[in-house]
Amino acid sequence: MAEKLTLEVVSPYGQTFKDEVDEVIAPGSEGEFGVLPGHIPFITTLKIGILIYKKNGKPGYIFVNSGYAEVYEDRVLVLADSAEKAEDIDVERAKEALRRAEELLKKQENIDFARAQAALQRAINRIRAAELAGKR
Ligand code: ATP
Question: Which residues form ligand 1's pocket by a CB distance below 6 Å?
C-alpha cells in the first residue's frame, strides 16, 4: 500500500503546489473530507475553502477556489479555478476584495448576488489561510 500521497494543486494560472505529503483534508462541496495513502479512488467537486495537508507532522494551508479533486491511492490532484499557498497570499489584496464584496452586497439591488457572495467567500478564506499559516 502507498505510504505517501503526491498532492498536486493546479489552476488555469499554473501549478500552485506539488509535493509528497502524509495526509490531505480538502473542502468538498458536500463537506470536508480527509485522504490518507491507500484511499479508495473517487472524484468530487470542491467549494471555496482551505485545503490542509500534513507533511512530517507539520500542516500546510492552500487556498482553493472551487474546482475538482481526483483522489487515487497514492495521489490527490486538485484542479481549482484559482489557488494559492497560504504564504503566497497577498492579505492586503484579499482585504480590499473583501471590502469591495461587502460594499456590493450592501447595495442589494442590481447586483449579481451569487457572484458577490463568491468574491466574499474567496476573500474570507484567503485571509483565514494566511492567518493559519502565520500561526504555525
Ligand atoms: P481579486 O478581486 O483581488 O482579483 P479574485 O478572487 O477575483 O481576487 P481570482 O479570480 O480568484 O481573484 O484569481 C485571479 C488570480 O489572482 C489568480 O492567479 C489568483 O491566484 C490571484 N490572486 C487573487 N487574489 C490573490 C491574493 N489575495 N493573493 C495572491 N494571489 C491572488
Answer: 13, 65, 82, 84, 88-90, 93-94, 97, 119, 122, 126
Tell which atom from ligand 1 comes closest to the C-alpha of 90. Answer: 28
Residue 111's pLDDT band (cuts 50, 70, 90):
confident
Q: Closest Cα partner for 7 from 15, 83, 20?
A: 20
C-alpha cell at 99: 471590502
CA dihedral of residues 60, 63, 67, 73 (deg, nearest 10): 0
Q: Which CATH architecture has domain 89-132?
A: Up-down Bundle (1.20)
pTM: 0.95
